[in-house]
Fold:
Amino acid sequence: MNTSKDLVETLQSFISKNGIQESIHPFFKRDDFTLYNGDSLEIMSRLPDNCIDMIFADPPYMLSNDGFSCQNGKMVSVNKGKWDKSKGFKNDLQFHEAWLKQCHRILKPEGTLWVSGTYHSIYQCGYLIQKLGYHILNDIVWFKPNAAPNLSCRFFTASHETLIWARKDKKAKHIFNH
Structure:
C-alpha cells in the first residue's frame, strides 16, 4: 500500500517528466504536501485523473485596469500584471472554465475545491462550478476588518471575499474536520 509520501513522490515525478521537456520542481515540499509555483494549467495538465484530495484556488480577479487603491495610507496602482488584466467577459469566462475543468479532472470523486474571490470574479466561478457538475457545499464570507477604503466615495467599501467550497461528486463523502 502506498503512503501519502509515496503518492507525493510519484506525482512529483509525473509532473517533472510526463513527456514534456521542461521540468517543474516543487516550490515547497513537506511530507504529504507539495506546492508548485507556475502556470496552473500547465502543472495540472501533467497530473493524472482523480489524484488530488483538495484544491484551494485564488484565481486572478481581473482588476488590473489602470485604476488605483489605497495601501498603507497611500494611493497605489491596482495593476498587478498581464495575468490580472481582463480580456473581456467572454474570454475571462473561458479562462475560468479551463482551469475549473482541469481541477475537476484531477480531483478524486470525494475531493473538494475551494475558490476565493471578490465580486469581480466569484460569480463567474460559481456559475461554472455548477455548470461543470460540482456540488456546492457552502459559500463562506471572509470579512476583512482592515479593507482598503473606498477612495472614490461612490461605492460601499469592498470589505469581504467569498469562498465557494464544492465537492467533485455529489454522492461522494468528503472530509470535514471542524
